[in-house]
C-alpha cells in the first residue's frame, strides 16, 4: 500500500461518492447522465479535497469508460495527443483535467474538436470560479457544476470506511479510534476529505500497537498528526459550536475582551473558514444598517486573512473584531426580512398589482400590465403615492428602524417621512 490512503479510497462507482448529493443523488443531474449513458463534458469547481477527482473516477468506474488524468498547467499538448489517439483506437475516454482554468490556447484549440465529436469527455476540475477564469470556448462546450463543502458527518463516514475497509484501507489492522479523535479529523481540515484521510493514515502508520496488538488513535494523536488543536476535549464536539456562538454574542454585546478570547480559541484551532463566515454574518446581522461601512471592512479583512493564511491572518481578523465590537448595532433589516419570509411561507403573498407588472412585451397593455404605473422620478422628491404591496398585504409593515447609528438614523427619518406622506394621501 504505497499509494496514499486518499488515493486508494477513491470511489469507483457513483453510489460510493461522499457528499455532493445535489449532483449524484437519486434523480440528480450527474446520476441521470450516468444512468442514461448520455455523458457530456463538465467543469467541477469548489474547494480542494471535496470530491472533484472522486466524481470523475466514479463516473468512469460506473460507465466502464477509460479514465485518464492530466494537469492543464504541467502536462503538455503531447500528453493530450496521446489521450486522443487512445480514444480514436478504443473509443470514448473520460479525461480528468485538473487546474482546467490554466489551459492555454494551443492545448485548448487542440482539445475543442474532440470535445465536440464526443471522443473525449472532459471533466475539468478547478478551485477557481469558472465563469471568471475559464475561456468561453471551453465553457460553451461544458456543463458547470459547483461542488459543496463536505459536512463533518460526510467526512466521518468516509474515515470509518477507510478504517474498516480490508482491501483499500486498514480493515486488516486492529485499529481503535476514539470519537473525539474521529471528530477532530473530520473538523480540523475544514471540509477537505483528502487531508482528513491522509492525516488518519499518518496517525495509524506512526502509532505503535499496544501489548494486545491494538493501534489506539486518541485525540492527542489526532492533534499531533493534523497539527491543529481541538477547542476542548469534549466528546460530542459541542464546545466547537459553543465558542463560535460565544464569539458572536460577545461582539453583539460589545465586549472586546471576551470576543478576543473566543477569536483566539478559534485561531488556535485553525478554523479560518469558520471565523471568516461567522464575522461576515455578524457584520450584516448584528451591525447592519447602524454602520454599513463596517460590513465592507469585514469583507475586506476576511479576504486579506484568507490570502495571508495563519499566522498573519490573525491581524486583520483582530482588527475587524474590535471594529465590530465597538460599532453601533442594528438588526432591523434582519428582523424585517425574517418577518417578510414568515408571511411568504405562510402563503400570504397575493398577486403583484397590475400596474407593477412587466409591460415590455406585445399585448401587455391589453392585459392591463403596467397601465397606470406612476414613475417616481417624474415627481418632486422622486416619490409618488401608489400601492406596491399585493392587496392581501397592503397594510403590512416589516421594517422597524433603529436609531443606533448615524446612517440608519438618516434612513429612519426618510422612512418616517414617507410613511407620513402615505397617511396624508390615504386620508384624503
UniProtKB/TrEMBL annotation:
The entry's keywords: ATP-binding, Nucleotide-binding
Annotated GO biological process: DNA synthesis involved in DNA repair; DNA-templated DNA replication
UniProt feature coiled coil, ranges: none
Pfam families reported for this sequence: AAA, AAA_assoc_2, MgsA_C
Transmembrane segments: none
GO molecular function, one term: ATP binding
Family, similarity comment: Belongs to the AAA ATPase family. RarA/MGS1/WRNIP1 subfamily.
Domain AAA+ ATPase: from-to ranges: 38-150
PANTHER family linked: ATPASE WRNIP1, WERNER HELICASE-INTERACTING PROTEIN 1 FAMILY MEMBER
Name of the featured protein: Replication-associated recombination protein A
